[in-house]
Design brief:
heterodimer; A: alpha/beta; 4-stranded antiparallel sheet; 9 helices; B: about 325 residues; mainly alpha; ABC transporter involved in vitamin B12 uptake, BtuC; transmembrane helix (chain B)
């Protein structure tokens, strides 16, 4: 079982400590949600894990190997990253976009039938096969988000790191995408997502890591990590955890004070 | 999609073949195919062998260099307005060349002028990439290009105003306007190795440019080294554009127009646009060069001028369609 971890990761940006020594060991086959207020360091942590940023000290490791020392292509074959504000520069069709996820696997002569099959499968899994021939710029936000997730799936990654993949999606699409993450985890992949929706974190994740001011405030099963005390300390809010018909709900009452 | 790409390549190659034939035939003196006989002592044969063959080869090489450079720059910057001319790379190459003309250094060796032009182009691309930074937004990139254009044209103006002799002024102005007139095999020998080397470098960036469709973070997460891509691109554009400018002067807009016209035909994937843009650039420059040759005028219209006359309105139309995106 693949393990993604970081040890004493510290990042300072413009004199401000963004990550103040993070230790985490993430297991594959799970959905891990990283939550925390704006500026808590969620995106920076994800970027360090994906080797997109080199920490000032400490390091992230994939199965014992420092990620920043791995050949970028070898890492890309195992780990897919979805940025917070995904950019699509050109009006390519959806299938071409999903095909970009195979770039780490392409040989000198370009894609083969295995690549084409992986793309087809990823599009089916993400439910975007019907858009295959459509230009991505003509798709709605929700459709485009799913095409981008299909792009990540096309590499059949062991690890998917997604920075706020649910922001900007309507509830129905949020459920679709959350369902996809669950399918990936069941298939053995490690899924790490940053989230703002606390109830979604409670229901979607197997494990929740609460970050505040660059440090881990709580880490564990969702109901253990997202307690009123933790939420008060992390966000400065009074919140209750209610029992809903489909599982617990976090009800934010007011600012603590 | 594969069939469409094959059709595109076949179409461009057929078009190019027709233009090559026309380019050898057409001009002030028409040389019909009946005069093409190696054994004959037809005096028109000299026109073909000594003037039109090198001119045609140069047209292909320079068009390919400019079209490919434009496509690569557009792919890297994710900006359809990028072009060696618009972004000041050609102007920097011209500045390098003009300085050698100004100092009369061209007499020292035939390599001085092309060497200086390529150096100017390399400095131009490097400055462009440094000025615009790693997060090159559309605006910063175009502004960086504008700065380069201003600096280069100021340098050229200075050289003109301080030129030691009217002869030097004439030479500089003539050269600046861009033309393939009266070029010989020497120019082909001078430019071809560098254009081919630059083109080979640029053609290797296809996969990185594809990945950049997803932005810089997206490309890096796909295992692409942006550093290597950046410097391969700078070297490739510097060599190809620099060598092209060195033998023809400044011919603008090819790198802008060609990728833009071909982009919808390849499904917008930047890597798939590279080779067709080289072919398309060759087609455009060759066609324009044939037109300036057969246009009735006292002297031959300069190719650079004709291209600017064509490219200006095109740039305007492109800008108008992009206005919403830029605003």
């Amino acid at each position: 079982m693949s393990v993604l971890s970081c040890q004493d990761v510290r990042v300072t940006l413009g004199g401000r400590s963004v990550l103040a020594g993070i230790d985490l060991t993430l297991a594959a086959g799970q959905v891990t949600a990283i939550v925390g207020p704006n500026g808590a360091g969620k995106s920076t942590l994800l970027a360090c894990l994906a080797a997109l940023r080199t920490p000032d000290s400490g390091a992230a490791h994939l199965d014992g190997q420092p990620v920043t020392a791995m050949p970028p292509r070898a890492l890309a074959q195992r780990l897919a990253f979805l940025p917070q504000t995904p950019e699509i520069a050109w009006a390519v069709d959806a299938r071409t976009l999903v095909g970009l996820g195979r770039i780490p696997f392409l040989g000198a002569r370009g894609g083969g039938s295995a690549d084409a099959a992986a793309v087809t499968q990823a599009m089916e899994l993400a439910g975007v096969s019907e858009f295959a021939g459509r230009v991505v710029t003509s798709l709605s936000g929700g459709e485009r988000a799913r095409v981008l997730i299909a792009r990540a799936l096309a590499g059949e990654p062991e690890w998917l790191l997604a920075d706020e993949p649910l922001s900007g999606l309507d509830p129905a699409h949020q459920l679709d995408v959350a369902g996809l993450f669950r399918v990936m985890a069941l298939a053995g992949a490690g899924v790490v997502v940053t989230l703002h929706d606390l109830t979604m974190a409670l229901r979607l994740a197997d494990r929740v890591v609460v970050l505040a001011a660059g440090a881990v405030l709580a880490d564990g099963a969702p109901v253990d990590a997202l307690t009123p005390a933790v939420l008060r300390a992390a966000y400065g809010i009074e919140a209750r955890v209610l029992a809903g018909a489909q599982g617990p709900i976090i009800d934010v009452v007011r600012r603590a004070g | 999609m594969i069939l469409r790409r094959i059709a595109l390549y076949v179409g461009l190659l057929v078009l190019l073949a027709v233009l090559v034939a026309l380019s050898l035939i057409a001009g002030r003196v028409w040389v019909p195919l009946s005069a093409w006989d190696f054994a004959s002592s037809d005096p028109r044969w000299a026109i073909i062998a000594d003037l039109r063959v090198p001119r045609t080869i140069l047209g292909i090489l320079i068009g390919a260099a400019l079209g490919l450079s434009g496509a690569a720059l557009q792919g890297y910057t994710r900006n359809p307005l990028a072009d060696p001319g618009v972004l000041g790379v050609s102007a920097m190459a011209a500045l390098g060349a003009v300085l050698t003309l100004y100092y009369g250094a061209t007499l020292a060796s035939i390599w001085v002028l092309p060497g200086a032009a390529m150096l100017g182009a390399l400095i131009g691309v490097a400055l462009l990439l440094l000025l615009s930074g790693s997060r090159s937004s559309l605006v910063t990139f175009v502004l960086a290009g504008a700065i380069l254009n201003i600096v280069a044209s100021a340098g050229i103006s200075l050289a003109l105003s301080l030129a030691p002799s009217p002869w030097a002024v004439g030479e500089i102005v003539d050269w600046l306007m861009g033309s393939l007139q009266d070029r010989s095999v020497d120019e082909v020998r001078l430019a071809a190795p560098f254009i081919l080397a630059g083109a080979a470098l640029l053609l290797t960036t296809g996969r990185a440019l594809d990945a950049l469709t997803l932005g810089e973070a997206g490309a890096r997460s796909l295992g692409i080294s942006l550093r290597r891509t950046r410097w391969t691109l700078a070297l490739g554009v510097g060599l190809a554009t620099g060598a092209a400018v060195a033998v023809s002067g400044v011919i603008g807009f090819v790198g802008l127009v060609v990728p833009h016209v071909l982009r919808p035909l390849v499904g917008a994937r930047p890597g798939a646009l590279l080779a067709p843009s080289a072919l398309g650039g060759a087609v455009l420059v060759l066609a324009a060069d044939i037109l300036v040759r057969v246009t009735p005028a006292a002297g031959e219209v300069k190719l650079g001028v004709a291209m600017a006359a064509l490219g200006g309105p095109f740039f305007l139309a492109l800008l108008l369609t992009l206005r919403r995106r830029i605003a």
